[in-house]
Specification:
Blueprint: H1 3-22, H2 27-53, H3 59-82, H4 88-110, H5 119-142, H6 145-150, H7 152-158, H8 161-185, H9 187-193
Length: about 200
Amino acid sequence: MLLPNQLTVLRIILTPVFFFLFLSGEPLLIQISALVYIIAAITDWYDGWLARKFNYITEWGKFLDPLADKILTSAAFLALVLVGILELWMVSLIIFRDILITGLRIWADYKRVSFSTSKTAKWKTFFQMAFQYYLLLIYTLKSFDSLNREYTRLFEILFDKDFIYYTMLAITIFTVYTGITYFISNWSLIKKIIGYKN
C-alpha cells in the first residue's frame, strides 16, 4: 500500500481514538484528543500533497481519501453535539449532505465520470472546518483549569450560545444550498452514473 493510502487509513484509525478521548470528560484526555485531531488533519493535507507530487493516485485512494475526510469531520461534529455545543438536527443535515455527495463522487470516479466542484462547495468546506476548529480549540483550552478560572468571562463570550447557534445555522443552510446546487449542476451526469433513462 502506498504511503498516501497508509496515511488515509491512519486517519480513519485515529478518528475513534479522538472521539473516545474527546468525550471522556477528563481534561487531560480532552487535551490529548485535540492533538490526535491535529495529527489526523495533517495526514489529510500530507497524503494529498504526496499523491499530487509523486503521482501516487490510485483507485483505492480516490475511494478512501474523501471517505476518511467525512468520517473525521462527521465524528468531530457529532462529538460537539454530544457535549452540548451543537444542535443534532443541524449536524445531521450536514453529515447527510456531505456523505451523499461524497458517495456520488466516489461512484462517479468508479464510473470514470468527472463531477465539477463549485467554488461555493469549496467555501462550504472552508466554513465548516474553520468553525469546527474554532469550537474544538476553545473547548480544549477551556479544559485547562487554570485558563478556565482566569478567563471565565472570555470563555463565556467565545462560547456564547446565540453566536454558536446562528453561526452553525448559517453554515447548515449554506451546506444544504450547495448540496442542492450540486445536484442541479451535475444532474445529467448523475442520471448517467445511476443508469437512469427517460
